[in-house]
Amino acid sequence: MSANSKTKTLVKSILKSSKTKVLACGALSIGGASMAASPSFAASVDLSSWNQLGDATTNSSNANLTNAFNDGSDDGGTNYNITGISPEFISVLESGLGLNPGDLGADATEGSAISKLFTGVQAGDVFSFDWVFNTYDNVFSDRAFVRIGNFIQTLAAGTSGSSNFSYTFASAGDYDISIGVVDVDDFTVSSTLDISNVQFTPADEAVPEPLTILGTGAAAAIGAVMRRRLGKKAEA
After folding, report:
1. Global model pTM greater than 0.85
2. Contacts from 228-235 at CB under 8 Å and sequence distance 24+?
3. What percent of the chain is helix, strand and coil (3-state, nearest 5)?
4. N or C end: fewer C-beta atoms under 10 angstroms in the chain?
5. CA distance 126 to 124
6. Cα–Cα dist 141/23, whole Å
7. Full set of structural domains in the chain with CATH
8. Which residues contact 134 (CB under 8 A, 6 or more apart)?
């Protein structure tokens, strides 16, 4: 029998006898890789440590804010205030959030907010939350807002509603994040803002392809068996 024929016969024999070992090796590789390089996941953000300005309260998973006076005098006897603390004048609120005068709008008069400094943010990370805005002001458009670094976006204005907010960071760095509600053009008739499901999702990471892993495991198993058998033949 020629050398090439002997080699082919040996490979067939190895494949047949090592089938179970190869499959087991491949399955083990896939399992190990899925644990070592799992996909990105969203981590819940604990709101209990966020700073509070005005009428705002937080726990681990929710935040509630209003622009209502603590005595209810701005709502004709109905008191929407939740902490016993009145909202801040807009100049105090903007200063407390590290903003410039007018950043929350020249028409804003007072408001409440929560804020937190996020450090070590990476490009591609995602910050998101669910919000519910209720306004009782039928004359002026009170509004809810979110601020991320130098970016400020209105969540709702003048109309009650709810939705999800999501922001993808374009560059790495440290970011001040604030969420709040402001009174507009007057100091009467209130609005409320409820925040929940706040999440921070790391940028996507590469996940190894299962078929590639299986192929690598199979090749490694075949190679090991061939070396052992060829070694025994050489000794003989």
Report:
1. no
2. 229/10, 229/14, 230/10
3. 30, 35, 35
4. C
5. 6
6. 65
7. 3-39+213-235 (no CATH), 43-201 (2.60.120)
8. 160, 191, 192, 193
More confident site: 67 or 138: 67
Query: What are the structure tokens assigned to 158, written together?
Result: 């003048």
184 and 50 Cβ atoms separated by less than 8 Å: no
Query: What is the distance between the alpha carbons of residues 49 and 63, in angstroms, rounded to a whole number?
Result: 11
Cα dihedral: 132, 52, 147, 93 (round 10): 110
- CB-facing half-sphere around the CA of 52: CA atoms within 13 A: 20
Distance CA 189, CA 87 (A): 13
CA dist 106 → 69, 91, 147, 160 (Å): 21, 10, 16, 22
Mind listing the pLDDT tens digit for each residue in 123-176?
A: 999 999 999 999 999 889 999 999 999 999 999 999 999 999 999 999 999 999
